[in-house]
Design a protein that fits this description.
- This protein has 333 residues and is an alpha/beta fold.
- It contains twelve helices and twelve strands.
Length: 333
C-alpha cells in the first residue's frame, strides 16, 4: 500500500523549501508567500491529493487547531446560529470547534471545560458566562485564551462580543410609546446574566416612570409564563409588554390567552432575539433582531487574533440591533 504524500513530497513537486510549502498551505500564513509560489504549492498538493497531518502539525506548533465552545442550551434556537457563525469563521483558518452543552449548570460547565482542556484546545469561546463567574476567573488566572460571546461578566477579564442590547431596548420602548402606550412592563431575563441586567436597566431608563419590571428565573417559556402571571396579577392595566427574549415572550403569549386577553388588541408584545419561526406565531412576533451568526463569527475572529497576538488587552465588540415589526404590536385601544 502506497504511503500518503507528505509535505516534503508537495515541496519537492512545487520546487520550494518544505517550510515554504507549509506556510502556503496554512490559511493563517499563506499571505507570507508569493502569490505565484502559493498557487504552485496548492496545485502540487491537489495533484498529490495531500492531506495535512493534524497530529504532526500539533506537535510542531504546540497547537491543536481546536477551540472549545461552551453553550448554555442547544435547544434554544439562537445558539445553533452562534455556533454556525463560529464554525464559518474558524474553518478558513484550519480550526475546528469542539462543542459542549452546559444546560446552564455551573458545575456541568466546569466539568465540560476540564474535558475540553484535556483535549488540548487552544482556547475557548464561552457563551455561558454569568455576571460573576468563577470559571471565567479561573481561565484568566491560568492564562487560557478566551472570548465571551452574547454574555459578559461584571469584571472585564476577556474580550466580549455582544449585541447593543441597550439600544435595542430603547428602540422597542420608543416604538411602543410612539404607538401611544403609556402602561408598559418588562419581563426581564435572569439578573445573574448580563443580558438580563443590561436590558432591564435600559427599559427603566427609556420607559415611562414607574413601569413595572418582573424578573424571570430563566430564559424559557415556562419562566416567562410564571412572570407574566405575576405581572398581570399585580398590574392588570398593562397594555404593552417587552420580554427579555423570545422564549419569555412565548410564555407571556400563552398567559395572555389564558386570561382571555387578545394580542395585540388588548396587550401588545415584543420579544428579543428574532429567533427562527417567531414570524410564524399567531400573531407573528414583533421582536428585536440580534445578528447571532455574526456574534459567533466575530467572537471566533477575536479568539484567532488573541492566539496570534497573546497579551492584547480585552476589548468589547457591540453589534447593532434593530426592531422587526410584526403583528403582535398595535396602538392601545
Amino acid at each position: 500500500m502506497d504511503k500518503p504524500p507528505t509535505i516534503a513530497d508537495v515541496a519537492k513537486l512545487a520546487g520550494v523549501h518544505k517550510a515554504t510549502a507549509s506556510r502556503a498551505l496554512n490559511q493563517r500564513t499563506s499571505g507570507q508567500v508569493n502569490a505565484a509560489t502559493a498557487r504552485r504549492v496548492l496545485q502540487a498538493a491537489k495533484r498529490l491529493n495531500y492531506q495535512p497531518n493534524a497530529v504532526a502539525r500539533s506537535l510542531s506548533t504546540n497547537r491543536s487547531a481546536t477551540v472549545g465552545v461552551l453553550i448554555p442550551d442547544l435547544t434554544n434556537p439562537l445558539f445553533p446560529l452562534i455556533v454556525r457563525g463560529i464554525e464559518d469563521a474558524l474553518g478558513p483558518s484550519g480550526y475546528t470547534a469542539l462543542l459542549a452543552n452546559t444546560d446552564n449548570d455551573p458545575d456541568r460547565a466546569e466539568a465540560r471545560f476540564d474535558t475540553l482542556l484535556s483535549r488540548r484546545v487552544d482556547g475557548f469561546l464561552i457563551a455561558t458566562a454569568r455576571r460573576e463567574d468563577p470559571l471565567v476567573v479561573r481561565a484568566h488566572e491560568q492564562g487560557i485564551p478566551v472570548v465571551l460571546v452574547n454574555r459578559s461578566t461584571d469584571d472585564p477579564l476577556f474580550p466580549v462580543v455582544t449585541g447593543d442590547d441597550a439600544a435595542g431596548v430603547a428602540a422597542a420602548v420608543g416604538y411602543l410609546t410612539g404607538l401611544g402606550h403609556e402602561r408598559l412592563a418588562h419581563l426581564s431575563g435572569p439578573p445573574a446574566m448580563s443580558t438580563g441586567v443590561v436590558r432591564a436597566r435600559a427599559f427603566r431608563q427609556s420607559a415611562p416612570a414607574g413601569s413595572p419590571v418582573v424578573d424571570c428565573d430563566a430564559y424559557s417559556d415556562d419562566a416567562g409564563a410564571a412572570a407574566a402571571r405575576r405581572l398581570l396579577d399585580e398590574h392588570p392595566g398593562v397594555t404593552a409588554i417587552l420580554a427579555g427574549n423570545d422564549m419569555i415572550a412565548l410564555g407571556a403569549l400563552q398567559v395572555l390567552r389564558e386570561r382571555g386577553l387578545r394580542c395585540p388588541e388588548d396587550v401588545s408584545l415584543i420579544g428579543f432575539n428574532d429567533m427562527r419561526f417567531v414570524d410564524q406565531l399567531v400573531p407573528p412576533l414583533t421582536t428585536v433582531h440580534v445578528p447571532h451568526h455574526r456574534l459567533g463569527a466575530e467572537a471566533a475572529r477575536l479568539l484567532l487574533d488573541q492566539l496570534d497576538r497573546p497579551g492584547e488587552p480585552a476589548k468589547t465588540v457591540s453589534l447593532p440591533l434593530h426592531l422587526v415589526v410584526r403583528g403582535s404590536t398595535a396602538a392601545p385601544r
